[in-house]
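Subgroup meeting minutes
Present: P.N., E.W., G.H.
Scribe: E.W.

1. P.N. recapped why we're keeping a running log of single-chain structure predictions: easier to compare across weeks, and new members can see raw inputs and outputs side by side.
2. G.H. added today's entry (139 aa).
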Amino acid sequence: MSQAQYVLAALTFFAWGLLLWKGRLAERLAACILIGLAVISPVLDDHSRTASMLLSIGGFVGLSGLALWQPRWWLIVAAGIQLVAALSHVAWLLLDTDRLWPAVTLRLLLWFFIIITALVGTAEGRWARYARSPSADRA
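Output recorded in log:
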């Protein structure tokens, strides 16, 4: 792994920890989605590109559902970034294997943006007035 990948991994674990520790229900559910994407995606990449694409689309649907359920700007942004990542799988399916590294690099960059958004989202969930309302964590 390169130094950049180590930094990304450290930021990822830090963001997950903050989302689970300091976040409200929406942030904790989003952390579960992000952890699922990070853990399951490498396994699926080795077996089926289609399954990997469906997982990425599932991540988009999950984040979008959370964004529709709870008033959080960071969830809207994260869902949009995840949509771009999901669409990059289409290019990966259409191109031959010699040209798939740009799509992989793009997804790593998009993951970085999702993690930065999640770090901001923890602050939004903690301190935004609309996120602190009693109805914000209704099930």
